[in-house]
Design brief:
Elements (H helix, E strand, L loop, with lengths): L5 E3 L3 H11 L5 H19 L5 E7 L4 E7 L5 E6 L2 H11 L4 E9 L6 E7 L9 E4 L2 E2 L3 H12 L5 E4 L2 E2 L1 H10 L5 E3 L1 E2 L2 E2 L5 E2 L5 H6 L3
Parallel strand pairs: 1-11, 4-5, 4-7, 7-9, 8-10, 9-11, 10-12
Antiparallel strand pairs: 2-3, 5-6, 13-14
Helix pairs in contact: 1-2, 2-3
Bound molecules: uracil.
The site of uracil has 9 residues, from helix 6.
């Protein structure tokens, strides 16, 4: 499913792996490995429209103008800490990408994001910026992270997540209608403390084994 603002990657491999990740009995190591695999499949989708050019090369048979990526290296921005789980897999597919980090934690009472770290590559205004965070829940931290990236010059941003709640999608669409979202699933809703239902629990805890 895809519109200009939202792409749901419904590829069977993505959906199969996601189901295993959702299962509460899936151990940390398996969860982490599946996240790495899914992020590569999502990265394939998110980079579908990268600008291309050609360069002259010589195959063993003859010269040709062969397709190659155009423009500055793209920037991957991990929204800490759970973003790192998506980042690793995407980086394996795009090893030359520049990498940045936005540190935000969610105040458990207000559910509002609080910034504690910001370090991004230079020249964001000339790069495709892919911001990664597995869970688009209330959208508060995603909107805040994109605000910061725009303040730093980014003007071509895609938001990549594993699961999205309808509430978070609506919030992002309202605040940043120019930022397309790519996700593996749009879940049903948020619960009263801002967790995605049915979701997969706390993505950070599940990937780092902190609970
Ligand atoms: N963050 C998570 O890790 N899980 C949710 O369900 C919502 C936000």
């Amino acid at each position: 499913m895809s519109d200009r603002h939202l792409t749901v990657v419904d590829h069977p491999l993505v959906q199969h792996k996601l189901t295993i990740m959702r299962d509460k009995n899936t151990p940390t190591a398996v969860f982490r490995q599946l996240l790495r695999e899914i992020s590569q499949l999502l990265a394939y989708e998110v980079t579908r429209n990268l600008a291309m050019t050609t360069k002259r090369i010589e195959t063993p048979m003859q010269e040709m103008d062969a397709p190659t990526l155009d423009g500055k290296k793209l920037a991957l921005i991990s929204i800490l800490r759970a973003g790192n789980g998506l980042l690793d897999g995407v980086l394996e597919l795009i090893p030359a990408a520049r990498v940045g980090f936005v540190g935000l934690y969610r105040d458990e009472v207000t559910l509002k994001p609080v910034q504690y770290y910001f370090k991004v590559p230079e020249g964001l205004n000339d790069r495709l910026v892919i911001a990664v965070d597995p869970m688009l829940a209330t959208g508060n931290s995603s909107v805040a992270a994109i605000d910061l990236l725009k303040q730093a010059g980014a003007n071509n941003i895609i938001f990549l997540c594993l699961l999205a709640a309808p509430e978070g999608i609506a919030r992002m669409k309202e605040a940043h209608p120019d930022v397309p979202i790519v996700t593996a699933s749009v879940d049903e809703k948020l619960n009263e403390v801002g967790y995605i239902i049915p979701g997969l629990g706390d993505a950070g805890d599940r990937m780092f084994g902190t609970k």
